[in-house]
Amino acid sequence: MTSWRHDVSLYISTVSRLTLYSPLYSEKTLQSPTMTRTILNEWFPNTTYPFISNAPMQGTATSKLGSAVSKAGRSGFIGGAYNFLPESPEIPAFDAELTAVRNLLQLREDDVLPLGVGFLTLHPSVSGFLDVVGPVVKRQKPAAVWLFAPDGPLAHERIIPGLKELGSAWKLRVFVQVGNVAAAREAASQGADAIVAQGADAGGHAWAHGAGIVTLVPEIRQMVQTEFSDREIAVVAAGGIVDGRGIAAALALGADGVTMGTRFIVADEAMTPDDMKDTVIKTKDGASSTIKHTIHDDIQGTGFWPKAYDGRAIMGKAYEEYVAGTPLDELKARHQTLLSAKDNSRRIVWAGSAVGLVNSRKPAGEIIVSAGNEARQIIEGLSKGLKL
Ligand SMILES: Cc1cc2nc3c(=O)[nH]c(=O)nc-3n(C[C@H](O)[C@H](O)[C@H](O)COP(=O)(O)O)c2cc1C
Q1: Could you check whether the bond before residue 142 is cis, i.e. omega within 30 degrees of 0?
Q2: How many helices (H) and strands (E) are present in the chain, helices listed first?
Q3: CA 70 to chain centroid
Q4: What is the structure's pLDDT at 340?
Q5: Which CATH architecture has domain 4-268+361-383?
Q6: Model-level pTM?
Q7: Is 205 a catalytic residue?
Q8: pLDDT at residue 20 in the model
Q9: Which of 103, 201, 229, 250 can pair with 240 through a Cys bridge, CB separation 3.0 to 4.6 Å?
Q10: Are 38 and 234 contacting, i.e. CB atoms less than 8 angstroms apart?
């Protein structure tokens, strides 16, 4: 009988569509027959295996973080916009951020940007998405666009084919983040290239009814393989992954790559206020110190999220007061007053349940290189029956 460890290594080397691994960056890498390149590495030739991206965290993942991640041989993402009205200030802002990426990476005006841009698609103005976002995407040529949080099944129906058409010259890839198999099926049938399977451990907003990546990733992988066997659709795991252990596990579950949000909140290049980084680093035991709820949105005045979503944040003073029975209006008033008085103790800190494993601030490149190397070491070790 073969051991499960043997099965894992067989699975990894079979499921990943392999070509020989060739490191594109000067980082010290491990060489072994299990070094692979997945479909994501083929689509994004600047990336090395394992494929890691930072989440396009609005306000946190700007040009500095996104370009640092891409520079380190992974796939950077920046937050784009969520208001698509023609006069929305977010549109020129993300355009300027993409220009900043171009400058940081010293690319020419007509080069494809080796990075993606994420959009939240819950706002009613999403009907104007292609009109306002389309021209910027066409001019800036990001390698990928990431969509998340549609208010209903039809929101992406025109957007995905529209994006793919306008980006056909450089093979723009569309990522859609989902929290269940039905939404993954919907995204795939609308033409998504990559399904980001977001598990319930994720920081920030997510499907209110969710499951962990241990079940979500294999079920989505299976659905894609059986129902869309004529297409190459990548599966990316998100939620609770902060290091090589999580990456190796996600690959074993059938993911082609991973996305990390919480780990990058404390990256040097993230636009996270210092006190928030400190809170993330000192918070331990994410199972009991974070909560998935709608109350934090209600308190901070972002309660416009559709019912299908809630958000995971660190439980702080405001949450304690909510549990103790303080009325919402009072909580909102305290939030406003103390924020304007610059009292950070009431800050709402969105973070995932893996926050307890985030122990240090580092440059994004270091986070990525050490997580990638650790994942490869684990995969090799498992195939030899070694203990973690
Ligand atoms: C602070 C924070 C902000 C986020 N903002 C966004 C966002 O603007 N758009 C988006 O699609 N996802 C956002 N997410 C969710 C991520 O896309 C991703 O699912 C999540 O970070 C993965 O889980 P992890 O935090 O455990 O790594 C955010 C996550 C965090 C922690």
Answers
A1: no
A2: 16, 11
A3: 14
A4: 78
A5: Alpha-Beta Barrel (3.20)
A6: 0.91
A7: yes
A8: 27
A9: 201
A10: yes
The phi, psi pair for 28, rounded to 5°, reads -75, 115
Ligand 1 pocket: which of 57, 178, 195, 277 to mutate (most atoms within 8 A of CB): 57
Average pLDDT, integer, range 354-373: 97
Going by CA atoms, what residue is nearest to atom 31 of ligand 1?
203
Widest pairwise Cα distance in the chain? 65
CA gap 195, 338 in Å, rounded: 40
Average pLDDT on 308-327 reads: 97
Strands across the sheet containing 194-198: 51-54, 257-260, 234-238, 194-198, 173-178, 142-148, 113-120, 76-81
For the chain, the average pLDDT equals 90
Please say if the pLDDT value at position 27 is more than 70: no
CB-count exposure of residue 360 (10 Å: 0-12, 13-18, 19+): exposed
In the structure encoding, which two tokens stand for residue 71, read together?
Answer: 């520079």
User: Domain residues of the chain, as ranges?
Assistant: 4-268+361-383, 284-350
